[in-house]
Structure formats: C-alpha cells, structure tokens
UniProtKB/TrEMBL annotation:
<keyword id="KW-0442">Lipid degradation</keyword>
<dbReference type="Pfam" id="PF01734">
    <property type="entry name" value="Patatin"/>
</dbReference>
<dbReference type="GO" id="GO:0016787">
    <property type="term" value="F:hydrolase activity"/>
</dbReference>
<dbReference type="GO" id="GO:0016042">
    <property type="term" value="P:lipid catabolic process"/>
</dbReference>
<feature type="short sequence motif" description="GXSXG">
    <location>
        <begin position="40"/>
        <end position="44"/>
    </location>
</feature>
<dbReference type="InterPro" id="IPR002641">
    <property type="entry name" value="PNPLA_dom"/>
</dbReference>
<dbReference type="InterPro" id="IPR016035">
    <property type="entry name" value="Acyl_Trfase/lysoPLipase"/>
</dbReference>
<protein>
    <submittedName>
        <fullName>NTE family protein</fullName>
    </submittedName>
</protein>
<keyword id="KW-0378">Hydrolase</keyword>
<feature type="domain" description="PNPLA">
    <location>
        <begin position="9"/>
        <end position="167"/>
    </location>
</feature>
<feature type="active site" description="Nucleophile">
    <location>
        <position position="42"/>
    </location>
</feature>
<feature type="short sequence motif" description="DGA/G">
    <location>
        <begin position="154"/>
        <end position="156"/>
    </location>
</feature>
<feature type="short sequence motif" description="GXGXXG">
    <location>
        <begin position="13"/>
        <end position="18"/>
    </location>
</feature>
<keyword id="KW-0443">Lipid metabolism</keyword>
<feature type="active site" description="Proton acceptor">
    <location>
        <position position="154"/>
    </location>
</feature>
<dbReference type="InterPro" id="IPR050301">
    <property type="entry name" value="NTE"/>
</dbReference>
C-alpha cells in the first residue's frame, strides 16, 4: 500500500479578515484538496480549530455570523488590557466541547507569543480552548492568557504564518495570508495609520516564511477591511473563494495534490 501524501495548510491571523480563509478552504476542498495537518495564528487558529473539528466552511461562516462574539467579553480591571478573554471560553466550548487537541479529526497546531520570554509557543496537545484564546489575544486590547507560568498574547506578534510545525511533517505546505495591503497614498486618520503599520509589521514575518510554502495564497487587498468588520463576513468569504479558484486555474499543478491527497491506494 502507498500512503497518501501529507498536505499541510498554515493560516495567518487578521481579525475578521480571517473569514476569507473559509472561502479558501471551500475552493480547495471543492477541488479535491484536503489538508491532513493544519496550523494557524489568531483568526487562523480559530478557523483551523473549527475545520479540524469537522465543520464545513459554510457551517463555520454561519456560526461566526450568528454568534455575538463580543457579548462573551467583559471589561478587564487591569493595566495590561481593556477586555478579558476568559469568558470567550464558554463560546468555544459550545463548538469544541471536548476541549482536547487529540479529539480533533485533523491534527492542529496553534501559535501564541510568550510575552515575557519573547518567544513563539506552539500548542498541539492537551487542552485546546485556552491556546486558541491565547493565539487570538490582541495585546493591549485583551489581558494576556495565562497557561502554566506563561503569559500569552496573539501569535501574530512573532509568527503570523506558522509553517514551522508543518515543516518536515508534511510533503506539501500551503500558506494562506489574509492581510494583503492595497496601495494607498493618502492615510487620512491616525486610526488608518496605526492599522496599516500593524498589518505591515505582521506581513513582514509572513513574507519571511513564504519560501517555506509550496503554494502561497493571498487574496487581494484584504487589508482594506477592518479587523472587526463582521458585517462584511459574506463578502470576505467570497473574496477568499473567488481568488483561490483563480489561483487554482493559474497554478494547475496544485491539482496534483487532489490526487496525492486521496486515500491510500495499492502501489
């Protein structure tokens, strides 16, 4: 018997822009390309966990749209953040009730930043929900998540495209970035200036990992969407789907992964 090839997919963070990852997944799976390993940061960790649990991209979109995410947050009485993420755990528990990496249908790794040590931490076993929360814990906005003795914040601070956990394990790696910036000559407000600067910083550590990917999918100009612009969810899904279908058309070699990712066949 010849074992099927292992196909890894790494999802970047990017707030609500991460919904475009669902469109990417829909296009890939419709084309017969099914990841055997997934890694993700922040929004990419959330999308990855839900997909690895067995939800379809359309089901995940419906959950995101129908869930009032912010009602699960409460103000933090702290000098390190405006909001606490602890209560968000009850939201994840509705859809990941086992709270265990080993119970996922597809192996998952999530990246978080150890703010005290200044290191990336990867989580792929044990409890599931708190590492996802840590991976999406925007510094300054949310209180850090404490796991053991580690104070953890958004993985995108140091690694916004965690391909390293897939390196040496997967035969092929697909990287997906949801933060491509449009060219914009006029930065009219301080808010736009800060947002653009943060995205540029995250993209720097994404592009430094691009060479580790066999295929790199980056739907255009997603950086123009706000981090919390949930009203654009369906539009973001469509951008991810349409771009990936065009990517497949322009890079037909990726369809070889559809053959390689099928179940084992006789040698």
């Amino acid at each position: 018997m010849k074992s099927k090839a292992k196909i890894g997919i790494a999802f970047s963070g990017g707030g609500v822009r991460g919904i475009s990852h669902l469109g990417v997944l829909k296009a890939l799976t419709e084309s017969g390309i099914f990841p055997t390993n997934v890694s993700g940061t922040s929004a990419g960790a959330i999308v990855g966990a839900m997909f690895c649990q067995g939800y379809t991209p359309e089901e995940i979109l419906k959950i995101i749209v129908e869930t009032n995410y912010f009602k699960f947050m409460r103000p933090a009485i702290s000098l390190t953040g405006f909001l606490k993420m602890d209560s968000v755990g009850s939201l994840f528990k509705l859809y990941l009730d086992h709270d265990d990496f080993s119970q996922l249908q597809i192996p998952l790794t999530v990246a978080a930043t150890d703010i005290k040590k200044g290191k990336v931490r990867y989580y792929s076993e044990g409890e599931l929900i708190r590492p996802i929360m840590a991976s999406s814990c925007i510094p300054g906005m949310f209180d850090p998540i404490v796991i053991g003795k580690r104070y953890l914040v958004d993985g995108g601070v140091l690694n916004n495209l965690p391909v390293e956990p897939l390196d040496g394990i997967c035969d092929f790696v697909i990287g997906v970035n949801c933060n491509q910036l449009p060219e914009e000559a006029n930065i009219s407000t301080m808010k736009k200036l800060i947002e653009r600067s943060v995205i540029m910083s995250m993209n720097y550590n994404v592009y430094s990992r691009k060479s580790k990917c066999d295929y790199f999918i980056e739907p255009p100009a997603l950086g123009k969407y706000g981090v919390f612009d949930i009203k654009k969810a369906s539009e973001l899904f469509g951008v991810g789907y349409d771009h990936t279908m065009k990517f497949i058309e322009n890079n037909p070699s990726i369809l070889e992964l559809a053959v390689k990712s099928k179940k084992s066949v006789k040698a």
